[in-house]
Amino acid sequence: MARPWMTLLAGLAGTLVVAGVSGVSGAAADPVASSHHTTGTHEVAGAASGRPTVSMVTLVTGDRVRITTQADGSRTVVPTPLPGRVARPYSIRYQGTAIEVVPSDARPLLRSGRLDPRLFDVAGLIAAGYDDASTKVLPVAARHAPGRGAVAGHADGATLAGQETTGNSTPLAVRKKDAAAFWRWLTGPKPAEVGTPRPVGGALTAGVENLSLRLRPSAVRPATQPSGATTDAGAPARGSGAHPHARTAAGPQAATYSVLLRIIDRNGHLLTSLDEGFITQPVVLNLDTEDIYNLEPRKTGVGAQVPPGRYSFGEIIVTAHGFKPTSYTDLARPNFTVNGNLTMTLDARNAHEVTARIQAPSPKPIVTTFGTVELFAGRPWTTLVTIPAGTNFRAFASTTSEVTDRAYNFAMFQSLSTSWGMYDLLVGAPQRIPATTSYQIRNADLAKIRSTFYSPGTGLDLDGVYFRESQLPGDVQVGLGGFYDTRLPSKQVHFTSPTFGSEPLPWSASLDVGPSPLALRYSELRTPVLLPAGESVEQPWSPAAYRPEASGERKGDQTMNITFEPFSPSVDNNRIIWWDTTGITGGATLKGTGVPADTVDAPFLLETGPQALPSAWYTLDLLARHTPTWSKYATSVHAFWKYQCHTPNVVHPMRLLNIRVSGAFDVYGRAPADKPFRLDLTVDPPRETGTPQTVALSVSFDDGKTWKDVPTTRDSTLGWHGIVNHPNKPNGFVSVRAKTVTDRSYVFSMTTIRAYGLVAATS
To answer: What is the C-alpha to C-alpha distance for residues 280 and 278, in angstroms, rounded to an integer?
Structure first.
């Protein structure tokens, strides 16, 4: 049974993005999502009270997709590389509640109906419980060609998952860690690619005609079922997995007209086949009825029968063969009217090249994303392409008219590596694709972030993946971003675009930590912040002085949810998601006036029943122990809260104090032995808790057997510091105990055994 705190991973809802990067249940480590009250000088309004969430999904191809959802609902989808898969473009289309992520080598097979579109709907996979935190396998059904028997048990990367079902279908369980090997077995060593002269859409290997997703009977289906999806038993797919509301013609009683698009690539070649240059299934959007119509091949282009009305079109085409290097061209007509038969020509040869030039020497592209983002039917609809490092390409875009009736942005996100640091750029223009798509960027117009990535001890086999993401303006709730493989410990410098047009850009960041991307220990997330031009920001990741935190809410039905972050680093704007809870034990107890005590035997989430009184004082105790081999700190923590809580009309955050303990630690979370050392203590008080009156500090050098009080000095309304005299014990540890009381009698105390380490002092 799933633990209650697994529900903290938020559900996802559904744009077209093309990204490139260098039922059966299975045992899996459960993620623990928790958050806390955050503060920050430039923090984006709304994000402070919310909870950014992360989900991971492994596709049947072996590609891994990371979905970050911010508190305001904006989402960023980033495919990440795994061994065995070559970096390639991906189409990522948000459509309703579905988010379709399709590698370019899978698109022809999906378009021909050989693959179930649900295999690539990452939001649907999460809703069905097939994300990486919930299961180690992906359940599929392989439908055989006529006259062929069941798939043999030797399918690479998969095992038989039961008896053969009816309809010539074999149930398989694809091991996610071996999904790339299964994909090679299924498709052969050289699968088709979009943009090649003759992509193959025939039968798969071993006589498999169709591969579909198998859903458990209790699985939650995506709210929007992509068209062409197969049945659970593996019935043949029909169609191409286009938008769920796509239509090829209007109803029989409606008057319709022919819309023909003559799409000409950069070779001057007229596209009459969907496999020749289209990265996704091309469609036209009816802005009046919110219907979507598939464009189908015609002798002189691609077209559809549609009723009269206002329409929009936008797709990115790839010109790969006969044109070097490969080019990607965004062709768009965001507003056109149909009141009779209509033919439009969009010529990629008339498009303008998209470039961003910086001051730093010898920039090397890491990833480039460009295209359009708009609102359709109240939801984001995008046309973007992301091209990975090492790909020789050129990007182009065709100028459009101004769009004022809905959000519409042209944007390019680009990550560059230079000897001066990394550049995370987001440039473009609102309301149109501009006539000028070449951008000259000065360092003085960028924000500068100096990040330090600490290690939780020496001699640990841990690495990180650092994600940088920015939310586009215009209420489209779409984020663009990239990632950097990051050693622990290390330092990085990033130059970042502070605005998009005239709008400030909120940037978020996160760090995945583990021995490999397939074996993550935890993720550290930051809420979005605004970074003004010319500002230099220090950003630490996972320093020492780990401490417990809590946040919670009381609902209108008088129940309460309290989430714990028992081993949090002392960083503001921070939250931790634990992917590997091995070695973590403990629990929590809540006591209140007039109600029985509530307890939980895991130190992550406590859910209560209805409270008897509309307003009452509570005490909350948390104990957690931490004994993994990959961390040397925070082996045990204890926290105590005393607070008052009221019944809200709908939901109300609890008023739980927290204390951050920080210092000038080295990159392994250590302080000098045999020297005085300053510890800073910052109280994070939510509203209406009152003003902190004191902060008491004690330390221990023998893992909590004996304690020594340390005098504290008040530096500000919320800040104190103490000077700790460390013993001459290199390789030893320091435990920390702190307590604060406000003038309204709110209380918080914490104890962390082995909060940080000691190292021999240097002269």
So the answer is: 5
Q: Is the pLDDT of residue 206 over 80?
A: no
Residue 239: inside a domain, yes or no? Answer: no
Question: Whole domain around residue 299: which residue ranges?
Answer: 246-350
Is residue 207 within 8 Å of 152, Cβ to Cβ? no
The Cα 85–Cα 83 span in angstroms is: 6
Q: What is the pLDDT of residues 147-171, one digit of tens each?
A: 655 565 567 888 888 765 556 788 8
SS3 letters across 362-390: CCEEEEEEEEEEEEECCEEEEEEEEEECC
* Cis upstream peptide for 711 (omega within 30°): no
Q: How far apart are CA 141 and CA 162, in angstroms?
A: 11
Return the closest-CA partner of residue 212 out of 192, 226, 196. 226
Measured on CA atoms in the order 346, 349, 350, 351, is the torsion positive or negative? Answer: positive
pLDDT, tens digit, 9 for 90 and up, residues 636-679: 999 999 999 877 667 778 889 999 999 999 999 999 999 999 99
Q: What is the DSSP string of 643-661?
A: EEEE--SSEEE----EEEE
Extract the tokens encoding 393: 């390409």
Question: How is residue 498 written in tokens?
Answer: 């502070």
CATH number of the structural domain spanning residue 329: 2.60.40
Provide the CA 550 distance to its chain's centre, in angstroms: 23
The count of domains in the chain is 4
What's CA 201's distance to the chain center, in Å? 31
Question: Quick check: is 299 in a domain?
Answer: yes
Residue 223 lies in a domain: no
In this prediction, residue 253 has a pLDDT band, given cuts at 50, 70 and 90, of low
Could you tell me the pLDDT band of residue 513, with boundaries at 50, 70 and 90? very high
ω into residue 31 within 30 of 0, thus cis?
no
Q: In sequence order, what are the residues at sequence separation of 6 or more whose Cβ sits closer than 8 angstroms to the Cβ of residue 743?
A: 690, 691, 693
Q: What percent of the chain has pLDDT over 70?
A: 83
Q: Residue 749: give its domain's CATH number.
A: 2.60.40.1930
Q: Which helix (H) or strand (E) holds 231?
A: none
Shared domain check, 741 and 646 = yes
Q: Give pLDDT tens digits for 2-17.
A: 332 322 223 333 333 3
Q: Report the greatest alpha carbon distance in the chain.
A: 89
| 312 and 360 assigned to the same domain | no
Is 54 inside a domain boundary?
A: yes
- Burial string for 465-490 (b: 16+ CB within 10 Å, else e) reads bbbbbbbbbbebbbbbbbbbebebbb
Listed in sequence order, the residues at least 6 apart from 691 whose beta carbon sits closer than 8 Å to its beta carbon are 685, 717, 742, 743
